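ARCHIVE CARD
Drawer: 12
Card no.: 0347
Subject: one protein chain, sequence and derived structure
Cross-reference: see card 0346
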Amino acid sequence: MNRSGRVGVLPLLVVTAVLLAGCSGGGSGTDRSTDAAGPSAATAAPTTAAPVAEPSVAASPSTAAQIAEVVTTWYEFGGESAMVDLIGEIVTVQADRTPDELGYVTVDFGPLFDATEAARWPGTIPDTRTQTEWWTALGHLEDGAQAVLDSSPDVSLLWSRQETEQAYEGWRTFDKGVKELKAVQARLRGTFGLRPPTDPWKAPR
């Protein structure tokens, strides 16, 4: 899979069709074993099992506080920086989707791929829902960008119908990842009170 290339310069007529379509959308488990060995049948004495208390259905406040604490640690020690950097690359890609004054478009996805890989470096977010949404967003951003990159013609400046449709679907997947990333931001802000000091979506590039 090539993630170092860029979508090259494209004629306005074909690029416009792709852009109009593209812009329409915005750990491992651990084995556990139990040693059940006990007294032999010949020496074991009969016992009466003590009643077991029913577990509480709702999470205790201390558990919620502990989750918030470890999520904050993740955020402060790499999570926020990785997210802000990734958003900055997304903003750049979105800006490059607009034709210049000559009607050409050049989108370089290399820095975006670097940012999505770096976004996994801080490790697993210690909150299952946030972690799932985070990795799903990263996957859609990568898959969408790769589809657009792969749709670029190798030898011609003109896109075939199939290549145009692939680019369209790629941008749809990419935009889905953007929406999911914003949902992760909203959860970090609303549930854990975590937000960057300035809005990275509006920061100048």
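Annotation on reverse: Residues 9-61 have pLDDT under 50 and may be disordered. The beta strands are 6-7, 107-108.
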